[in-house]
Amino acid sequence: MKMISSSIVAIRQPGVPDSNKYLLYYDSGWDCWFFPNRHSTPNIQDDERDLGNYLNVEFKIPMRDCDLAMRGTEESTKYSTEHDEERHYLYRIYSGDVQTLPEHWELDGEFEVGGHRCKWMTIAEMLADERIHDVNYDVVTAVRDNL
Q: Is domain 3-146 classified as CATH 2.60.40.2080?
């Protein structure tokens, strides 16, 4: 079975004290909303650096404005509808603390940044969404349990 290592970043709304909403982007291949994520780099320090670069390029978050902290790891085996096979996933869960709202981001509704359709959702909203629940329940609960 193929092992996939992914780093997942949970970014709360910047500038909103005690916000319980997280940044998600829409992935058309999966037809689902996801936390920002990328394949993990084996070394944790390299992974954090690569995640910072990824967030800067893909979501226009200035590197100096985002503090990443690894919160835990989780493993999951599930069927990949996009790849039509069962896969074993190893997730690294990170929190991402963005100090100020980046240009082109919105706090309400959908917005586009870096070619990504984005929006904010609570964990409860994610778990109540049928498609997110079907495709990504393991990741949403891993984020919930590790933050």
A: no
